[in-house]
Amino acid sequence: MTAGTDAVPAKPVPIRAMVLLAMAAFSSSVNMRVSDPLLPMIAGDLSVTVGSASTTIAAFAVGYGLLQLVFGPVGDRFGKYRVAGLCSIATGIATALAMLTTSLEGLVAVRFLSGAMAAAAIPLAFAWIGDVVDFANRQAVLARFLSAQIAGIVLGQAVGGLLGDLLGWRPVFLVVGVCHVLAGVAMLIELAAHPGVQPLVSARKSSPSDVAADTLRLLRQPWVQVMLLSVGIEGFAFYGAFAYIGADLHHRLGVDLAVVGLMMAAFGFGALSYALNARRFLQRLGERGLALGGGILLAIGYFAFAIVTTAWVVPGIMFVLGLGFYMIHNTLQSNATQMAPEARGLGVSLFALALFIGQSLGVALAAPVVDRFGAPAIYVAVAMILPAIALWFRSRLAVRPS
């Protein structure tokens, strides 16, 4: 295992192929958040409560999480770019089927399928970038690629709300589905025209027993354990608090829910500011400095949320959280693409699964604390956990296998 060298020689980055893959990642991120503002419309149309309608969001998330470990090995075996393109098309079809459903059960089923197919795009994109970009340039390239994912997250709710008001909730899923299909078809056309877009296709077997054996082998490697533990704790702490910011702003500071959405969009702008300046950050701070600096900014942001008494400073705090999170998370992601070069798709899928499990546990375990003591108690806790894990990961980077 190497951290500073690649299994393939450095070569020019296939820009057009990456742009098309970014379109698929953007569509996947939009798809993940587009349902949120549609819940009242879905509930009214299907004659269910908003709480019941929210199971469509949970269904997408569960499908997305469960399929992480499937697409990594499949991408290693059949080509990450090809599999991501095919799954983007499948995601689009499943997403568009939502407009034909007439019951909540049917909608939950197609949203689960949409999430399951969407699970391929982003992890395989990171693994593919690991195949085609040398490690020295990878973090900056990943940061630029993240711009598409971040934009999708930021715009997903806005697009869903706007189109929902104009067209109704059913056409929204059709529009998102078409975006997926167009991105996937364009990727497959690009791959057919330039087969070198996917230079590495493993000859490794990909039966369930082989995948299980490879997974156990990776889990025994100390550096893989460091990576999975780091991202799991990061997801546990960060999202365990982040999930409750909107409700906390509404209940504690009296901010209107529509304004809360606009304020929270500042997180995306903080993330984009990192993505657009990642190369400068990396040159000035290095990986270890980015990891520690990100942890410190996250501590500052969450401590600020714990004591804030006025809403006008919230966008600034959200900006700091966005910048800090992507400083440390992008450092983790770039290392995840190199922690298992011989099975990169599987390695990145394990990384994504650890993040998903940590995030889910964090949100669930924070709920009773928030109900009893309020969100500021969680903010203070994570403001101590996040710089601690950043400091620990920074120390591990110093002795990373070479």
Descriptive keywords:
402 residues, mainly alpha, Growth Hormone, Chain: A, 2 domains, 18 helices, 0% strand
List the helices and strands and how they pair.
Elements: H1 15-33, H2 39-46, H3 50-53, H4 55-66, H5 68-78, H6 80-97, H7 104-118, H8 121-132, H9 135-167, H10 169-193, H11 208-219, H12 222-242, H13 245-253, H14 257-276, H15 278-307, H16 314-336, H17 344-373, H18 375-398
Helix pairs in contact: 1-6, 1-8, 1-9, 1-10, 4-7, 5-6, 5-17, 6-7, 6-8, 6-10, 8-9, 8-17, 9-10, 9-14, 9-16, 12-16, 12-17, 12-18, 13-14, 14-16, 15-16, 15-18, 17-18
Structural notes for this entry:
The chain folds into two domains: 11-205, MFS general substrate transporter like domains (Growth Hormone, Chain: A, Up-down Bundle), CATH 1.20.1250.20; 207-397, Up-down Bundle (Growth Hormone, Chain: A), CATH 1.20.1250.20. The chain has helices at residues 15-33, 39-46, 50-53, 55-66, 68-78, 80-97, 104-118, 121-132, 135-167, 169-193, 208-219, 222-242, 245-253, 257-276, 278-307, 314-336, 344-373, 375-398. The longest helix has 33 residues, at 135-167. The protein is mostly helical. It is globular, with a radius of gyration of 20 Å. Helix 6 runs antiparallel to helix 8 (121-132), helix 12 packs antiparallel against helix 16 and helix 15 packs across helix 16.
